[in-house]
Amino acid sequence: MKILVSSCLLGNCVRYDGGHKLNYFIKDKLGKHAKWVTVCPETESGMQTPREPMHLVNKGDTVRLVTLKTRRDLSDKMNIWINKFFSEFNTEDVCGFVFKSKSPSCGFKSVKIWSENNILYSGKCGLFASECITRYPHIPCIDEGRLNDPDLHDNFIEQVFVYKSWSLLNKTDLQSLEKFHTQNKYLIMAHNPEGFENLGSIISEKKLSTDQKYFRYQSLLMKTLRQIAAIRSRSKVLMLMVNDIKEHLSSDNLTELTEMIDNYRKGFISLRVPLSFLNHYSRVFKCAQFQEQTIFNPYPKELDSSCKT
Ligand code: SF4
Protein backbone atom coordinates (compact mmCIF):
# COMPACT_ATOMS: atom_id res chain seq x y z
CA MET A 1 0.00 0.00 0.00
CA LYS A 2 0.99 3.63 -0.39
CA ILE A 3 0.82 6.40 2.20
CA LEU A 4 1.08 10.07 1.39
CA VAL A 5 3.43 11.77 3.87
CA SER A 6 4.74 15.27 4.51
CA SER A 7 8.33 15.16 3.31
CA CYS A 8 9.91 16.74 6.41
CA LEU A 9 8.62 13.83 8.56
CA LEU A 10 10.90 11.47 6.66
CA GLY A 11 13.95 13.60 7.50
CA ASN A 12 14.13 15.68 4.32
CA CYS A 13 15.47 19.20 4.97
CA VAL A 14 12.59 21.09 3.36
CA ARG A 15 11.26 23.15 6.27
CA TYR A 16 11.24 26.94 6.28
CA ASP A 17 14.33 26.95 8.57
CA GLY A 18 16.22 24.43 6.43
CA GLY A 19 15.62 21.62 8.91
CA HIS A 20 13.43 18.56 9.07
CA LYS A 21 11.09 16.86 11.54
CA LEU A 22 12.16 13.26 11.20
CA ASN A 23 9.75 10.89 12.93
CA TYR A 24 11.31 7.48 13.50
CA PHE A 25 8.05 5.60 13.94
CA ILE A 26 6.74 6.89 10.62
CA LYS A 27 9.95 6.41 8.67
CA ASP A 28 11.21 3.13 10.10
CA LYS A 29 8.16 1.23 11.36
CA LEU A 30 5.27 2.39 9.21
CA GLY A 31 7.69 2.66 6.30
CA LYS A 32 8.23 -1.12 6.40
CA HIS A 33 4.61 -1.63 5.41
CA ALA A 34 4.05 1.22 2.97
CA LYS A 35 5.49 2.88 -0.08
CA TRP A 36 5.69 6.62 0.47
CA VAL A 37 4.12 9.25 -1.70
CA THR A 38 6.33 12.05 -0.38
CA VAL A 39 5.16 15.61 -0.74
CA CYS A 40 6.28 19.06 0.37
CA PRO A 41 3.71 21.57 -0.89
CA GLU A 42 5.87 24.61 -0.07
CA THR A 43 9.06 23.58 -1.87
CA GLU A 44 7.20 21.85 -4.70
CA SER A 45 5.20 25.00 -5.35
CA GLY A 46 8.50 26.81 -5.93
CA MET A 47 9.35 28.29 -2.53
CA GLN A 48 12.99 28.40 -1.45
CA THR A 49 14.57 26.62 1.53
CA PRO A 50 15.22 28.31 3.91
CA ARG A 51 12.32 30.72 3.53
CA GLU A 52 10.35 33.19 5.53
CA PRO A 53 7.83 31.46 7.82
CA MET A 54 4.15 31.75 6.94
CA HIS A 55 0.82 31.51 8.63
CA LEU A 56 -2.83 31.46 7.65
CA VAL A 57 -4.77 34.70 7.75
CA ASN A 58 -8.50 35.13 7.51
CA LYS A 59 -9.39 37.72 4.87
CA GLY A 60 -13.08 38.13 4.18
CA ASP A 61 -14.44 34.74 3.13
CA THR A 62 -11.08 33.23 2.32
CA VAL A 63 -8.06 31.93 4.18
CA ARG A 64 -4.75 33.21 2.83
CA LEU A 65 -1.19 31.93 3.19
CA VAL A 66 0.86 34.96 4.22
CA THR A 67 4.54 35.43 5.17
CA LEU A 68 5.04 36.63 8.73
CA LYS A 69 7.26 39.69 8.29
CA THR A 70 6.95 40.87 4.72
CA ARG A 71 3.22 40.01 4.57
CA ARG A 72 3.53 38.49 1.10
CA ASP A 73 0.40 36.56 0.10
CA LEU A 74 1.50 33.21 -1.37
CA SER A 75 -1.96 31.65 -1.54
CA ASP A 76 -2.30 31.85 -5.34
CA LYS A 77 1.08 30.24 -5.85
CA MET A 78 0.15 27.44 -3.46
CA ASN A 79 -3.35 26.93 -4.86
CA ILE A 80 -2.08 26.69 -8.45
CA TRP A 81 0.35 23.99 -7.33
CA ILE A 82 -2.36 22.16 -5.32
CA ASN A 83 -4.65 22.00 -8.37
CA LYS A 84 -1.81 20.71 -10.53
CA PHE A 85 -0.86 18.14 -7.88
CA PHE A 86 -4.36 16.70 -7.68
CA SER A 87 -4.83 16.67 -11.46
CA GLU A 88 -1.93 14.20 -11.55
CA PHE A 89 -2.46 12.42 -8.22
CA ASN A 90 -3.17 8.71 -8.56
CA THR A 91 -5.02 7.44 -5.47
CA GLU A 92 -4.65 3.80 -6.44
CA ASP A 93 -3.30 1.87 -3.42
CA VAL A 94 -3.15 5.05 -1.29
CA CYS A 95 -4.44 3.99 2.14
CA GLY A 96 -3.51 6.93 4.35
CA PHE A 97 -2.32 10.51 4.74
CA VAL A 98 0.27 11.42 7.38
CA PHE A 99 0.65 15.17 7.74
CA LYS A 100 3.06 17.46 9.62
CA SER A 101 1.11 19.09 12.44
CA LYS A 102 0.53 22.85 12.73
CA SER A 103 1.94 23.67 9.29
CA PRO A 104 -0.09 26.25 7.33
CA SER A 105 0.27 23.94 4.33
CA CYS A 106 0.26 20.39 5.74
CA GLY A 107 -1.27 20.81 9.22
CA PHE A 108 -4.22 18.62 10.10
CA LYS A 109 -6.84 20.09 12.48
CA SER A 110 -4.14 21.87 14.46
CA VAL A 111 -3.44 25.05 12.50
CA LYS A 112 -4.10 28.53 13.83
CA ILE A 113 -5.91 31.03 11.67
CA TRP A 114 -5.14 34.68 12.36
CA SER A 115 -6.89 37.96 11.84
CA GLU A 116 -4.63 40.97 11.33
CA ASN A 117 -3.74 41.10 15.03
CA ASN A 118 -5.27 38.22 16.92
CA ILE A 119 -5.78 34.49 16.67
CA LEU A 120 -9.29 33.88 15.45
CA TYR A 121 -9.37 30.16 16.00
CA SER A 122 -7.23 27.08 15.89
CA GLY A 123 -7.95 23.47 15.00
CA LYS A 124 -8.05 24.07 11.25
CA CYS A 125 -6.23 22.31 8.39
CA GLY A 126 -3.46 23.75 6.26
CA LEU A 127 -4.25 24.54 2.63
CA PHE A 128 -2.90 21.29 1.20
CA ALA A 129 -4.23 18.99 3.96
CA SER A 130 -7.63 20.62 3.71
CA GLU A 131 -7.78 19.81 0.00
CA CYS A 132 -6.71 16.20 0.64
CA ILE A 133 -9.48 15.50 3.12
CA THR A 134 -12.10 17.33 1.05
CA ARG A 135 -11.25 15.39 -2.10
CA TYR A 136 -10.71 12.01 -0.40
CA PRO A 137 -12.88 11.96 2.74
CA HIS A 138 -12.62 8.16 3.11
CA ILE A 139 -8.84 7.91 3.20
CA PRO A 140 -7.59 7.72 6.82
CA CYS A 141 -5.52 10.70 7.92
CA ILE A 142 -3.53 11.86 10.93
CA ASP A 143 -0.62 14.11 11.85
CA GLU A 144 2.54 13.13 13.70
CA GLY A 145 1.36 14.97 16.84
CA ARG A 146 -1.76 12.84 17.07
CA LEU A 147 0.31 9.71 16.58
CA ASN A 148 1.62 10.38 20.11
CA ASP A 149 -1.83 9.72 21.52
CA PRO A 150 -2.17 5.90 21.88
CA ASP A 151 -5.91 5.84 21.06
CA LEU A 152 -5.55 8.04 17.98
CA HIS A 153 -2.43 6.16 16.92
CA ASP A 154 -4.05 2.71 17.08
CA ASN A 155 -7.24 4.01 15.54
CA PHE A 156 -5.36 5.44 12.56
CA ILE A 157 -3.26 2.31 11.98
CA GLU A 158 -6.35 0.13 12.18
CA GLN A 159 -8.21 2.34 9.70
CA VAL A 160 -5.29 2.16 7.28
CA PHE A 161 -5.22 -1.63 7.29
CA VAL A 162 -9.00 -2.00 7.04
CA TYR A 163 -8.96 0.49 4.18
CA LYS A 164 -6.23 -1.54 2.51
CA SER A 165 -8.29 -4.74 2.71
CA TRP A 166 -11.33 -2.79 1.50
CA SER A 167 -9.35 -1.53 -1.51
CA LEU A 168 -8.48 -5.10 -2.47
CA LEU A 169 -12.12 -6.26 -2.61
CA ASN A 170 -13.61 -7.30 -5.90
CA LYS A 171 -16.43 -4.75 -5.88
CA THR A 172 -18.51 -6.30 -8.62
CA ASP A 173 -20.17 -9.02 -6.55
CA LEU A 174 -22.06 -8.89 -3.30
CA GLN A 175 -20.46 -12.01 -1.81
CA SER A 176 -17.17 -10.14 -1.30
CA LEU A 177 -18.99 -7.41 0.60
CA GLU A 178 -20.88 -9.93 2.76
CA LYS A 179 -17.65 -11.74 3.56
CA PHE A 180 -15.88 -8.46 4.42
CA HIS A 181 -18.78 -7.50 6.70
CA THR A 182 -18.67 -10.86 8.49
CA GLN A 183 -14.88 -10.90 8.93
CA ASN A 184 -14.90 -7.39 10.40
CA LYS A 185 -17.92 -7.93 12.63
CA TYR A 186 -16.30 -7.64 16.07
CA LEU A 187 -13.75 -5.05 14.96
CA ILE A 188 -16.49 -2.70 13.71
CA MET A 189 -18.73 -3.39 16.71
CA ALA A 190 -15.93 -2.27 19.04
CA HIS A 191 -16.23 1.17 17.43
CA ASN A 192 -19.99 1.31 17.27
CA PRO A 193 -22.42 -1.65 17.43
CA GLU A 194 -25.15 0.42 15.81
CA GLY A 195 -22.77 1.26 12.97
CA PHE A 196 -22.29 -2.46 12.35
CA GLU A 197 -26.06 -3.00 12.22
CA ASN A 198 -26.50 -0.08 9.81
CA LEU A 199 -23.75 -1.45 7.57
CA GLY A 200 -25.60 -4.77 7.50
CA SER A 201 -28.79 -2.94 6.49
CA ILE A 202 -26.99 -1.41 3.51
CA ILE A 203 -26.07 -4.89 2.28
CA SER A 204 -29.61 -6.22 2.63
CA GLU A 205 -31.35 -3.16 1.16
CA LYS A 206 -33.16 -4.48 -1.92
CA LYS A 207 -33.60 -1.13 -3.66
CA LEU A 208 -29.86 -0.47 -3.95
CA SER A 209 -27.65 -1.65 -6.81
CA THR A 210 -24.37 -3.40 -6.00
CA ASP A 211 -22.45 -0.20 -6.86
CA GLN A 212 -24.64 1.87 -4.55
CA LYS A 213 -24.17 -0.66 -1.75
CA TYR A 214 -20.40 -0.53 -2.04
CA PHE A 215 -20.44 3.26 -2.17
CA ARG A 216 -22.66 3.69 0.87
CA TYR A 217 -20.94 0.92 2.79
CA GLN A 218 -17.49 2.50 2.34
CA SER A 219 -18.74 5.86 3.46
CA LEU A 220 -20.38 4.54 6.64
CA LEU A 221 -17.57 2.07 7.33
CA MET A 222 -14.88 4.76 7.44
CA LYS A 223 -17.13 7.09 9.44
CA THR A 224 -17.72 4.30 11.98
CA LEU A 225 -14.03 3.37 12.21
CA ARG A 226 -13.08 7.00 12.89
CA GLN A 227 -14.90 6.72 16.21
CA ILE A 228 -12.42 5.66 18.86
CA ALA A 229 -13.10 2.17 20.18
CA ALA A 230 -13.25 2.96 23.89
CA ILE A 231 -12.26 0.41 26.55
CA ARG A 232 -15.90 0.15 27.62
CA SER A 233 -17.19 -0.73 24.16
CA ARG A 234 -14.26 -3.06 23.49
CA SER A 235 -15.04 -4.84 26.79
CA LYS A 236 -18.66 -5.28 25.71
CA VAL A 237 -17.53 -6.80 22.41
CA LEU A 238 -15.15 -9.13 24.24
CA MET A 239 -18.02 -10.29 26.44
CA LEU A 240 -20.14 -10.81 23.35
CA MET A 241 -17.37 -12.94 21.88
CA VAL A 242 -17.23 -14.97 25.09
CA ASN A 243 -20.97 -15.44 24.83
CA ASP A 244 -20.62 -16.61 21.23
CA ILE A 245 -18.04 -19.22 22.20
CA LYS A 246 -19.24 -20.22 25.66
CA GLU A 247 -20.82 -23.54 24.61
CA HIS A 248 -17.24 -24.82 24.10
CA LEU A 249 -15.81 -23.52 27.36
CA SER A 250 -15.57 -25.13 30.76
CA SER A 251 -16.84 -23.08 33.69
CA ASP A 252 -13.20 -22.48 34.71
CA ASN A 253 -12.34 -21.16 31.24
CA LEU A 254 -15.42 -18.97 31.35
CA THR A 255 -14.57 -17.52 34.74
CA GLU A 256 -10.97 -16.94 33.70
CA LEU A 257 -11.99 -15.09 30.52
CA THR A 258 -14.59 -13.00 32.32
CA GLU A 259 -12.03 -11.96 34.96
CA MET A 260 -9.53 -11.18 32.23
CA ILE A 261 -11.98 -8.88 30.46
CA ASP A 262 -12.76 -7.20 33.76
CA ASN A 263 -9.05 -6.61 34.32
CA TYR A 264 -8.76 -5.18 30.81
CA ARG A 265 -11.72 -2.86 31.51
CA LYS A 266 -9.99 -1.64 34.67
CA GLY A 267 -6.77 -0.96 32.75
CA PHE A 268 -4.69 -3.69 34.45
CA ILE A 269 -3.90 -5.66 31.30
CA SER A 270 -3.72 -4.96 27.58
CA LEU A 271 -6.40 -5.80 25.04
CA ARG A 272 -4.04 -8.33 23.48
CA VAL A 273 -4.40 -10.64 26.52
CA PRO A 274 -8.14 -11.50 26.36
CA LEU A 275 -7.98 -11.43 22.55
CA SER A 276 -5.12 -13.96 22.52
CA PHE A 277 -7.09 -16.30 24.77
CA LEU A 278 -10.23 -15.96 22.65
CA ASN A 279 -8.18 -16.57 19.52
CA HIS A 280 -6.62 -19.61 21.13
CA TYR A 281 -10.00 -21.10 22.10
CA SER A 282 -11.45 -20.36 18.68
CA ARG A 283 -8.63 -22.33 17.05
CA VAL A 284 -8.81 -25.19 19.54
CA PHE A 285 -12.58 -25.53 19.21
CA LYS A 286 -12.66 -24.59 15.50
CA CYS A 287 -15.36 -21.97 16.05
CA ALA A 288 -16.80 -21.04 12.66
CA GLN A 289 -18.02 -17.60 13.78
CA PHE A 290 -14.46 -16.57 14.75
CA GLN A 291 -12.86 -17.74 11.51
CA GLU A 292 -10.79 -14.98 9.91
CA GLN A 293 -12.09 -12.33 12.34
CA THR A 294 -9.90 -9.27 11.81
CA ILE A 295 -10.20 -8.14 15.44
CA PHE A 296 -7.59 -10.75 16.38
CA ASN A 297 -4.93 -9.25 14.18
CA PRO A 298 -6.06 -5.96 12.69
CA TYR A 299 -2.52 -4.82 11.80
CA PRO A 300 1.10 -5.88 12.36
CA LYS A 301 1.90 -5.90 16.09
CA GLU A 302 4.99 -3.72 15.76
CA LEU A 303 2.75 -0.85 14.63
CA ASP A 304 0.81 -0.85 17.90
CA SER A 305 1.21 2.27 20.06
CA SER A 306 2.52 0.05 22.87
CA CYS A 307 5.47 -0.96 20.63
CA LYS A 308 6.22 2.58 19.49
CA THR A 309 9.63 3.09 21.05
S1 SF4 B 1 5.15 20.76 6.80
FE1 SF4 B 1 4.69 20.32 4.66
S2 SF4 B 1 5.17 22.19 3.58
FE2 SF4 B 1 6.17 22.32 5.57
S3 SF4 B 1 8.21 21.53 5.24
FE3 SF4 B 1 6.97 19.81 5.93
S4 SF4 B 1 6.28 18.88 4.05
FE4 SF4 B 1 6.99 20.92 3.49
Describe the model.
By secondary structure, the protein is an alpha/beta fold. It contains 12 helices and 8 strands. The strands form 2 sheets. Strands 2-1-5-8 form a 4-stranded parallel sheet. Strands 4-3-6-7 form a 4-stranded mixed sheet, with no helix packed on it. Helix 5 runs antiparallel to helix 9 (210-226), helix 8 (193-204) runs antiparallel to helix 9 and helix 11 (251-265) runs antiparallel to helix 12 (272-284). It binds iron/sulfur cluster. Iron/sulfur cluster binds next to helix 2.
Give the helices and strands, then pairings.
Blueprint: E1 2-6, H1 24-29, E2 35-39, H2 41-44, E3 54-59, E4 62-67, H3 75-88, E5 94-99, E6 111-114, E7 119-124, H4 127-135, E8 141-143, H5 150-167, H6 174-183, H7 185-191, H8 193-204, H9 210-226, H10 231-245, H11 251-265, H12 272-284
Parallel strand pairs: 1-2, 1-5, 3-6, 5-8
Antiparallel strand pairs: 3-4, 6-7
Helix pairs in contact: 5-9, 6-8, 7-8, 7-10, 8-9, 10-11, 10-12, 11-12
The structure holds iron/sulfur cluster (SF4).
Iron/sulfur cluster is lined by residues 6-8, 14-15, 40-42, 100, 103, 105-106.
Question: Concise description?
Answer:
This protein has 12 helices and 8 strands. It is α/β, with parallel strands linked by helices. The strands form 2 sheets. Strands 2-1-5-8 form a 4-stranded parallel sheet.
